[in-house]
User: Fold these one by one.
Assistant:
Number 1:
Amino acid sequence: MQSKMDLGTAAYDGVEEIVAKNQRLVQQLNTGIHSANEVLSIVSQITNERIDGSTEIRLPFQTDFGRNLHIGKKVFINSGSMFVDLGGIYIGDHVLIGPNVTIASVNHRLEPSERRNLDLDSVCIHNNAWLGANVTVTPGVIIGENAVVAAGAVVTRDVPPNAVVAGIPARVIKVIKNTKEDQK
């Protein structure tokens, strides 16, 4: 579901309050020495949702809003990843996210006089997907179950289940056959 948020509105001001609070938590997370459980506890405070103990998050970890980032079970997030989540980012179970991945659910308008206003469009990454190092996912994209996004790809369109995509913009280069689900 796409929506808009304009500068100077009450909704925008409310977001700024949450951003300020969460930026303190993100800074605390990335500048201290923490156990794996402490990392999950701080990220749970940032997202306002309990992060399952089976998930592993490597630091540094960045999010600009935090409250619209939803992380499944047995997820691995490598270091340096950035989640621009105001529009919503949904990460399923068993997802692997490589280092320095950027997932954005926010865009700006092209018209210069409106450029500071935001267009929000959620990103959904389904179960068992794997995003390689330095991948960028743009607003509104759905990455299908078991999909693989090759390192350095820029994903601007939906990725079908069981597809391998690569390039800028990302395109399907292979289909994964004979998955365990296919053998049932």
Note: The two ends are 34 Å apart (CA to CA).
Number 2:
Amino acid sequence: MAKTAYKLMFTGQIKRLDAFISSRHEEFSREFSKKLIADGLALVNGKKRKPSHLLKEGDQVTLHLPERAAGPLEFEKLVMYEDSSLLAIAKPAGLCVHPTDSNWERTPRASLLGEETLVSLLFSARPELAAMARLGLVHRLDRDTSGVMLVAKTETARMALMEQFRDRLAKKLYLAAVSGRPAKDTGIIDAPIGRASGFKKIKVWEYGRDAVTEFIVKEKTKKHALLDIRPQTGRTNQIRIHLAYIGHPVIGDKLYGGESAARMLLHSAKITFSHPDTGKRKTISAPMPPEFKKTWEEVKAGE
């Protein structure tokens, strides 16, 4: 990743290194400054120091700040639809939506440090979104799930889309390839989801939050099935948890007992919502990715 070096000369009374960086760059939180220092991207007189290092008159602080996580052309390949109010992106499997460190919400530039994420791509290709809460994200997908994601470009659109997701007015369709063959070609899984005391993993739990998932079998093989999934609620890992709960875990889902595969076979195929500007219903579709299709064919061939 390309970096640009910025040199700052310290003058005045003794001050901590992290405090000095944050004072010179108001958009940098103290936590972000500490991360720069810990990662060796903020040097004092050419040497790595601790965040608590006390600067003295004449010390030179050099910041090596990342520029772009990826070129805009790479990002543009993910864009399926864009207008003045929103973006629709085809997220590839394996790409995290945002960094695990929540500091990126206060300091979007922090997303450029470490692993590439959808947020870092957005910050690089659409820097104006840095002024938006969470860079306009209104929902998320798991790292290993591919498919459609919506990103708001205005505050009005962000609030309208979030309201639709909250009130279950935005409708989602997923594709999931699972182990085993469901006994019926259609079904509704109604089982609460939560994190029980003493368990790290979210699961079906009688005291959890309500969660409902509908499915239709699209294709059956000897040992597997391809399903259309329509979640009626939006709990974390809901589809994966519910399918594992009924004995048909998603292929490639290591966390919930899915059989081994090149990728997790869960794909956000379609989102239907009311456009925040016109109120008209709009559908964005993402076809089955080539690597999903290839993995599914390999699974069937290996039966």
Note: The chain has two domains: 5-64, 75-302.
